[in-house]
Amino acid sequence: MNGVALAVFVFFFGLVTVIGFVAARWRSADLGHLNEWGLGGRSFGTIITWFLLGGDLYTAYTFIAVPALVFGVGALGFFALPYTIIVYPFVFLVMPRLWSVAHKHQYVTPSDFVRGRYGSRGLSLAVATTGILATMPYIALQLVGIQVVLQGMGIGGTAASALERDLPLFIAFAILAAYTYQSGLRAPALIAFVKDTMIYITVLVAVFYIPAKLGGWGHIFDAAGQALPHHTPPGALILPQKQFVAYSTLALGSALALFLYPHSITAVLSSGNRNVVRRNAAILPAYSFLLGLLALLGFMAIAAGLKPATNNLAIPQLFDKMFPDWFVGFAFAAIAIGALVPAAIMSIAAANLFTRNIYREWLRPDATPGEEAKMAKLVSLVVKFGALAFVLFLKTEYAINLQLLGGVWILQTLPAVVLGLYTRWFHRGALLLGWAAGILVGTWMAWSASFKSVAPFTLFGLDTTVYPALVALVVNLLVAAVATPLLDAARADRGSDETAEADYREEAAPPIEALAEGPGSRS
Amino acid sequence: MSDRRPGEHSTVSRAWYLLLLLPFIGLLWPPFYAKDTPRLGGFPFFYWYQFLWVLLGAALTAIVYWATTPRRGGRR
Hints:
The structure holds 2 protein chains of 2 kinds.
Chain A: H1 3-22, H2 34-37, H3 46-57, H4 60-73, H5 80-105, H6 110-118, H7 121-152, H8 162-183, H9 186-214, H10 217-227, H11 244-258, H12 262-269, H13 274-283, H14 285-303, H15 314-322, H16 325-363, H17 369-393, H18 396-411, H19 414-417, H20 428-448, E1 455-459, E2 462-466, H21 468-489, H22 512-517
Antiparallel strand pairs in A: 1-2
Chain B: H1 11-15, H2 22-27, H3 45-68
């Protein structure tokens, strides 16, 4: 174990712990209200939202897994870049509408919107359950991110006893759980400033310092180009033709799915007005640039001749080999803290969903805002310790497989949530059928491809591979489109719509009465 | 402001949104850019082309933002 690196690591971890607890007093308000605890009072400006969304979307696991994938397979792993570029025009168009209607009707979750738009408890429950199920393994993977960093520092590893291996992780998560419980969304919002600054410093130092030591970028790419074809399965520096469809569908499918995740929507709804969301679509790509550079660290690890036991260890080993000890500690702290921000927001988002769309909707319809907040705090604890148990007692592989499935599932809520922002043409029953069909097809495809991120597919007589989530979405849309006229012909109840067209363009003017009475604009 | 009815966008202002399609076209068709040369600062074309799109995408979004946001406090 490296003393200097560990000391620096512990210092920064201690720093964000303090920040997490102090956050409860930042922009102080009554945290016994879900609007405050779970959405930070819907008051964040452009800069805070930029840090919060950046810290939320670009997770620690991303920082480990993307370069690891590039290290393993080369060009295909780079789909993370087009994915995080095309997501922002989509966000620019769609999310301000969601922000406005949610602000007008005091919706806290995407399921609240679906409930209000379609007057359907069933569809709302489907969206909520999908969100919770997709989020849980994602939180578990943040823990895996911390675990990998700890291993990189020589803590744990295969030789260590179970106690030595798991105790640091347990402590890290207990701290996270405590300040999230106390401060709600304010904690990750404040910590995101530290996390993102550290990540930017780490990556910028890495992309200038390491290539200089390895003989320049040209040499790094050449070394990767020579080594990749000898990997099993063979990789490539330049995307080969047979991976074109996989590359595009992974990028498009992931981009459409990203802002359907509850933790993305929570961060969007916490912003103070719709122009904050629109502005952020133009400035968040700074993080995408960073992610692209980070992906290239995978090639640096190849050029440095590293042979890690698993691909996930490629980046920690690269840092360990290239950087002085104190900066290794800094970089590892950056990644570990990078896990805390999304893990906190994800658990808050899952807690909001459970509280609003399962607890209040089905179990205790007359819950007061105070009871709602109390329940959400408790659920955020349960969710986090569930994820911890998952990582400690089950194979990491299961978390990765489930996270992949989560991506397939969450995309199936697109017709109800995103198309619902534009049209009420679809019948609520048809949307539910489409959702079910999409989940079945997507799960089956991922299953039969033994949980690889792409599945074999024949398109116009051409054998290729494709991202199952996107195929499932097409099936989902077809079913919904065919079932809508059929259900209408059968005169099935369409449900009432509590929103009006103008609600989707509503500006920031705060509905004072609604704030005073708490969320309660249900019809 | 309140006398302006919802849905009352000018066609000119709406046309700006078409710019947002460009990143999709530029990136979702890999045959455009899946090649090694020309290299730039050691980067194969495949890589620097996509990095370039990060900047282009952000710039296009910013342009659309400015073109479609009313100058002061108007409703959209």
